[in-house]
Amino acid sequence: KALDVFAHIERTDALRAGSSNLEERARDIRYTFLRETAASIGARVIATGHNQDDQVETILLRLLRGSGLTGLIGMQAHQADLVRPLLELTRADIRHYAHAHKIPHRIDASNQDLRFVRNRVRRLLLPLLTKYFNPNLRETLTRSASLLAEDKSCLDDFTSTLYARLVKERRTTTGIEPSIDAAELTELPKALQRRLIRSMSKVADPQARLGHSVALEQALVALASHSKGVQFPLGGSLTLSRAKGTVRISFAK
Q: Which of 139, 146, 110 minimizes the C-alpha distance to 26?
């Protein structure tokens, strides 16, 4: 009210305490709500309150889970329809600002619950690493993520060039079906094979989230081991197949 800004509030009963993947499913529900609200009011971007501490926790979590380059760069200040204007500020910076300007705020009680892995990283692992290994750990991880982001940007540009040169797209009844000459794909370094398959998957299904998945690695092994007759599920409704010298990714609705 003080800022004359409309507030859109929605509650959900789609989550149950104690159920599996609670944090991830809550995140999906939040972003669905944000994007639906943005569309309904004609907003072009969504600003979130992620800060530097969130970034460091995210990088550590992804490192522990075995993420590749894309995961280890953490969150980006600008990413598609999302902006994160507070990403370079610490929680301490934000609390100090709120205190100095007498801005009331709340602390989510669930942030203290050690059943959630992010809270264990925040309250147990980070203090231990900072105390015994690197007192400047936050700055170190943030700097590393920034360097990795530059490498990723370079690889993204190169992958886009390769995609335009090597990949063919065919429109089918279920959408776009990208394909590539099998020999040209398997002659590339594994890192570029992964990136091309991810790009092809994204075209076949814009909701595809392969990431650094076991299915993708198994598909690469299958491609290297067999000259024909490969058919491999990539997760969801995507299938990678190799036949007549062509690798194809198809999507069945």
A: 110
Q: For the chain, how many residues are written?
A: 253
- 16 pLDDT exceeds 80? no
For residue 244 the two structure tokens come to: 């007549």
Q: How far apart are CA 58 and CA 70, in angstroms?
A: 12
- Nearest Cα residue to 178 out of 191, 194, 196: 196
User: What is the full DSSP assignment across 16-66?
Assistant: -TT-TTHHHHHHHHHHHHHHHHHHHHT-S-EE----HHHHHHHHHHHHHHT
CA distance 233 to 218: 10
Cβ-based neighbours of 148, under 8 Å, separated by 6 or more: 69, 72, 73
Per-residue model confidence as pLDDT tens digits over 116-131: 889 999 999 999 999 9
